## 1
Amino acid sequence: MTKIFLDYYCVAIHDTTMRRSEIIKADVLKLIRTLEKGSALPSRTALCDLLKTNRVVLDQAIRMLVEEGILIAKKGSGTYVANLIPTVRSWGVIVPDVADPIYAALVRGIEDVAHRLGRSIIVCNSDFDISKQADYIDRLIGHAVDGFVIVPVLQSDLKENYRMFMKLRHLATPYVFCNRLIDGIDAPAVLSNDFYGGYIATKHLLRNGYERIAYLAPITYKGSIDRCQGYITALQEARMTEDRTLIVMDEPTENEHGDQRIARLISEYHVDAFFCFNDALANKVLDISFELNHPVGIVGYNDSILCEQASTKLTSVRYRSQEIGSAAANLLSEILQTGFSGSYRLFSYLPELIVRQSSLPMRARSV
């Protein structure tokens, strides 16, 4: 039992040292950029004092730079700059999944601005994994990126996110959030107005004669809650009575139980329309309504390729991802030039409704 604990402890210490070494490596790279080829680095003691680190972490950072051919260590003489750092500047971009059309468009917007400014981007997929996001941030810091555009991973325990982004702030590495914020983190951000998206979707269904409108979301977090508040506001504005049994935010698409719940909303609760958190969920509702031979009005979210591929083309709220990506990149560039400021740097884009067949007025609806 003692050996297992010691092995675990040693692994944890090694991982912590490696993470810290990546950060110190980035600091050494910044120093190297001020030197000429062949110049000697300050002594290890002086570097430890300058970078506020210890000898173990510093040695690991320098060893990585030697392996990359940036430094050369001469025994008994010192460490020298072997090759100058390329002058091309880069930004780190971390998204949940670049294969998702929303994030692909976001990255395209960032890339367009980066190219215009003579910057390159390094794109990483977090896969909604907090530890993978942390690893990529450490690696990109180690490669001395100038700044980050991040779609942050959300989780119930905020400690890891807080630690990670406070580290960026401590290192004065600029970052901009896209799509969502993290509680407790004061960060520049470019967002889509989810409240407005929920409001215009529900308003559209009400205008087309629907009265029993359900809201479905696969998970409860700020974006789904904001869209729900927009949904409720539209109902209140129309002086419609809220029925909380028609609000479902607990993975209704993942299993047979979820399908049954949607079917019950249609057949037992007499729902005549659905506002859905995303297009995949809207498509699921469409399939079930066809199986029941009971057509309903449907509005999805994201305006993905599913909208045109569905048997009945789906009305959906468009996210304007490319514009958000461009705005985030421009904001990052501004921060890199002027530094963080006390001003409130939060920008919100209004989504737009793309109307198709799934939400035709009730009198014009057909299966």
## 2
Amino acid sequence: MIPRALTIAGSDSGGGAGIQADLKTFSAFGVYGMSAITAVTVQDTQGVYEIMAVDADIVGRQIDVVIQDIGVDVIKIGMLFSEEIIATVAQKLRRYSDVPVILDPVMRAKGGASLLNPGAENQMREQLLPLATLLTPNLPEAQALSETVINSPEDMHRAGMALVRRGISYVLVKGGHWENYPADDCLCSSQSAMWIRGERIQSVHTHGTGCTLSSAIAAEIAHGKSMSKAVQSAKNYVTRAILEAPGFGRGHGPLWHFPEDKP
């Protein structure tokens, strides 16, 4: 049976991140993708100019109808934007508690624009984080959610373990925002921590890397891979997608989600 994945996230009009990146990634991994759109953004490679949130009830209904009709093997969550949407998604996750959840806590766009309403951060921390199988924060997100300061790889590990202690099964603290360190990520669980080594690529074409990584992990989990193998496979895939980026746009350009060396 073909694995099924549901992404709950915002739409990126430039096609490099959000729902568009998620569905492309699912397809690259041979997974059937479904979507519950939380917001429509006006954006390109240079910035986010406007955001219109979808009514929270509509978000909830999108989730219910596709799961009840088609079924789902994994849920990936990206941009949620508002407190109302976070509360609705948390309610649905509790209803479908047997489905693994990959949570990418999207808080800011690559260019710096806020993608989370003021006040929604605490709600995400309290309502959503305990429901995640895997949390995939970048360094600023890990600092905010763990309420710690990260200045070294050791701090990454400490922040990840602090988040695990809040009830999350796995936390992947991503090191891509550090220019003076290798692009290594730290995968933490209550049993252990391991480093996922990565090549640092000097490129402006990195729009959507977070969305793509979490979606690739979700796809591999849907295929039945262990968490560590899913994360390593996804990391390799994103590296290839950056190396084969098409070079579009005048800002932070998109990846190429169908690299020659496919997963």
## 3
Amino acid sequence: MRRGSDKFGGIALDSLIIAAGRALAGGDPLGALKRVALRDDPDALALRGVAMAQLGDFTRARALLRRAARAFGPRQPRSRARCVLAEAEVALAARELLWPARALAAARQTLAAHGDPANVAHAWQLTARRLLLVGRLAEAERILARLDRRALPPALQAVQELLTAGIAMRRLRTREAQRALELAATAARRAGIAALQAEIQAAARALHSAAARRIGPAGARPLHLAEVEALLASPAVIVDACRRAVRHGQRRVPLARRPVLFVLVRTLAEAWPQDVSRELLVARAFRGHHADESYRSRLRVEMGRLRAALATLAAVEATRDGYRLLPGQAREIVVLAPPVDGPHADLLALLADGESWSTSALALALGVSQRGVQRALEALAQAGRVQCFGRARARRWTAAPLPGITTTLLLPAALSSG
């Protein structure tokens, strides 16, 4: 069979390489592997690595991409930088958030020096995606603002709008998110990449899925993001269990670092307009079995602290049997709770995105210690709620997604940043 050739990055490429590259661009990894599976030249190794990544074998993909980068060597810096870029994307897909950012920055500079603006933009988008995962929204937003959407190819335009929608959803700007998802869907159709279209459809479903629960006198009911946005803009006093804070309009009292006070105010808010007995408050806040005099004294101290903390938002009133929360100038008190409550709910929310996470990535995304994450995962594994695969540093954790729930949008780490 006669093989034609073409030029790509200054390198002569035969027709099989070109066809494999087109297959990958169209989201057909098996078609690409059929053409280059038995070849070990640098271009074929790189394409095989990308194909394996699209098939979900991240370990094999990284090994192939590293072999390709070594084979290209210093004489082909542009091709080598593209391999580094692909490896960074694989690391992001595998939730290895500690992958060295310097290597990606160096690759981006090399690509810029060799006139590859599309891959330079792709490198910036990878950086923004990592920042989005760890909740650094303002930094991700600044990176996206420097990219000209009109100059990007359709696939990168779709990714750009998807990232914009992700930031808007985490900031609870639902109209902005909806508009960005519509633009992303249009760009993805032009690109013709089925996997990208599916990702955008999943994000659109998340926008209209249950993101939290409203707990009030009428009971609990699920809320999607637009309803959460409307509730936070309402005149009610809101005890926000997603971010462990109490808010009323623009005023906000954070209690994330005062867990006892938050347990007390949430317990009082869930019972509003009724009071709560001292026995129940002691059991919830101190895990005491009986409200003896020592617990009652401690409860009085903590209630005094809570009264001082909420002075501008609500009042705490002592009653004959316990305490009651009063809304002050507001009409009502509402609890905004996560869609899934209980121990380690934020950890389960991250794992429920269906991706495999390392403990270091989970710790970074949640802003907690890695050892604390390991202990929580061990407890969840014993309860059968999470599962792991791999050993030592290659171990990854995952959980089955909860149907109909927007799992990662109201995480404290994401919403407290940016």
